[in-house]
Amino acid sequence: MPHPLIRIDSPDDPRIASYRDIRERDLIGRQGRFVAEGKVVLNVLFSTSRFSAESVLLLENRVAGMEELLARIPEHVPLYVAGSAVMDAIAGFHMHRGVLAIGLRGEEDSADELITALPDRALVVALSGIANHDNMGAIFRNAAAFGADAILLDSHCCDPLYRKAIRVSVGAALKVPFARGGDASTLIETLTARRFDILALSPSGEREIETVKRAPRTAVLLGAEGPGLPAALLARLPSVRIPMRNDFDSLNVAAATAIALHRLWR
Which domain holds residue 31? Predict the structure, then answer.
């Protein structure tokens, strides 16, 4: 049986209140909800995601050709459709994609709970001070591609479930388990207590990353683009670098993550 379509003719309809003014409300939070955008992301949300959905909102001219996605939406999840003018008024800007869902965050595991549940052989990404949503999304995409089992975020990292971060991650932010764990020092203590070898990635690292033999439990720690990891943290940990030309000093943090994870994955 086809999923029933519920037509929305007014942007003030209370049933779609969670979708209103997407950009502004993304910055202040949505009371345990997040916005998923785009067909690829919604396919992840309704197939391999760790999260459930509250509702779906589609532009009416996008419904045709979405049979595979529609078949994945559980019957209890309302499927709303709207015309272009109404959709734009709801979102607060022109929604050319016209494919949205509201996801439910649920209860988040602590960093210790997440790490405790990992297998004996595991690869973890630990992030300190990653505040750019594009970089965050790309890091999650890299983590999914190269088999990272989890991502730990310190208290200075941005939200992986921000709409743009999810979109850049092509849904990987909905798949790769993550948790927040206080400051970077606390993350290190959590990982050390669970027998992880921690590699701090820095342009000034002691060894080239291709010389590293991956331990059964390995974590790679990365800092924000520009400042990188604090000197005090680098002094505490084995550090590695990605070799590059002498006349250039560093890579984008997402690109560096991809190279490091690929090396450790192989």
Answer: 5-104
